[in-house]
Amino acid sequence: MARSSYDECLKRLLAHEGGYTNHPSDPGGPTNFGITIADYRRYVKPNATAADVRAMKLDDAKAIYRAKYWAAQRCDDLPPGIDYSVFDYGVNSGIGRSGKVLRRVVGLPDNISIVNDEVLKAVAQRDAKAIIASINDERLRFLKGLKTWPVFGPGWGRRVSEVKAFSLQLAGHPAAVPAPASPAPAKGVVPPPKALKGLVAAGAPAGGAASGLGFHAWIAAHPIEAGAFVLIGLGAVGGALYTLHRWHRARQEAPTPNLIPVAA
């Protein structure tokens, strides 16, 4: 597809993302132009602070969008309209989710999220309008299922509606496309589980020698027992964190039921 569509897609995306935010309910944390502090550290400044994110240059944000979201999802090779829907979804909820959703709606396995030649071939065999509708309908269902929907839902709903309408226009299907209204920031992703606090809060047994000597003195007097408590505690925490991680991944990549049939 024509590379020139990137500029218009990015313009609309930036209008939705707005400027600097650091909302306590947003799992992205400090964010500017839609670029989270994690991405800014990864691509620009490894030890960046919230102040660095606030001072982010627009050109830095544009470079990150081009590399991580547009090029990584091969949006230059996707049909007009599908490119924008996939691009905006990836920015808002992660390319791991947007890539898998695209694969699912065209009938491919979602064991990977990469947009490869197989995906491009499947997309070319299906109706662009139907793909756009399915992606955005799934996106709205996913966002409504997030715990952060009550906080960010109105903005997200408006954003998905606008993305869908403009995507259909790009695909050659007339649609009333509203100009981007007020920004709808915050990342529409499953918030990661909070790290468990106090990995080994107090391994010594209550009372007895521990209460008489004090915790640190007890450790010095009982190095073997203290080591055992630490190992047991770390093992339990590791298992709990792994379980939470598996739940988070499963929730983030929840199945998409609707598939787009191959065009006759």
Description of the molecule:
- The chain is mostly helical.
- It folds into two domains: 5-191, Chitosanase, subunit A, domain 1, CATH 1.20.141; 194-264.
- Helices cover 58% and strands 2% of the residues.
- The chain has a two-stranded antiparallel sheet.
- The model is unreliable at 195-222 (pLDDT under 50).
Keywords:
264 residues, mainly alpha, Chitosanase, subunit A, domain 1, 2 domains, two-stranded antiparallel ribbon, 12 helices, 2% strand, globular
Assign the CATH architecture of the largest domain.
Up-down Bundle
Per DSSP, the total helix count is 12
Order of helices and strands: HEEHHHHHHHHHHH
CATH superfamily of the largest domain: Chitosanase, subunit A, domain 1
CATH topology of the largest domain: Chitosanase, subunit A, domain 1
Beta strands, count:
2
Give the oligomer, counting copies of the same chain as homo and different chains as hetero: single chain
- CATH C-level class of the largest domain: Mainly Alpha
Record the strand order, biggest sheet: 1-2
Percentage of residues assigned to helices: 55-70%
Supply the number of structural domains.
Answer: 2
Question: Can I get a quick summary?
Answer:
With 264 residues, the chain is an all-alpha fold. It has twelve helices and two strands.
Note the topology.
Blueprint: H1 5-17, E1 31-32, E2 35-36, H2 37-43, H3 50-54, H4 58-71, H5 82-93, H6 95-105, H7 117-124, H8 128-144, H9 149-170, H10 208-213, H11 215-221, H12 223-252
Antiparallel strand pairs: 1-2
Helix pairs in contact: 5-6, 5-8, 5-9, 6-8, 8-9
